[in-house]
Amino acid sequence: WEVIRLLKKAKEEGNLPEYLLMENVYAILNKRNIKEFERLIGVLEDLGYTSTYQVLNAKDYGVPQNRKRCFMVSTLHHGKFIFPKPCPDGRVLKDVLEPPEDVPEKC
Questions:
Q1: Residue 22 and residue 41: Cα distance in Å, rounded?
Q2: Is the pLDDT reported for residue 102 higher than 80?
Q3: pTM score, two decimals?
Q4: pLDDT in tens, 54-86
């Protein structure tokens, strides 16, 4: 809600950002949290934003980590954001780590 406070102040000053990108745990969409999330979207709508959200997994976008996060893109005057389609490359963490023999025991 600190973001909303800052956006309201920016609106008073005529300086709202065209785009917002917010990221949160994907549990923000579960039964316990969804009402508050929907309330946030409603406040953004009142400020003039169109919001689109989707749960994305880092492993589906070239990051060797299985990590689901809820991303929301809100735009002023630009309509709904279209999220990119997954493009997994099959890498896993082992593929990007240094070999153990190359890592000093003490730093």
A1: 11
A2: no
A3: 0.82
A4: 999 999 988 888 899 999 999 999 999 999 999
Q: Are 72 and 52 in contact (CB under 8 A)?
A: yes
* The token pair that represents 4 in the structure block: 């909303």
- Which residue, chain included where needed, has tokens 């880092």? 58
| Confidence at 7, pLDDT banded by 50, 70, 90 | very high
Predicted confidence at residue 107, as pLDDT, reads 60
35 burial level (CB within 10 Å; 0-12, 13-18, 19+): exposed
Is 89 in contact with 81 (CB distance < 8 Å)? no
Q: Scan for tokens 């008073």, then name that residue.
A: 12
Q: What is the DSSP string of 53-87?
A: EEEEEGGGGT-SS--EEEEEEEEESS----PPPP-
For residue 46, CA distances in Å to 14, 16, 29, 41, 42 come to 15, 13, 21, 9, 6
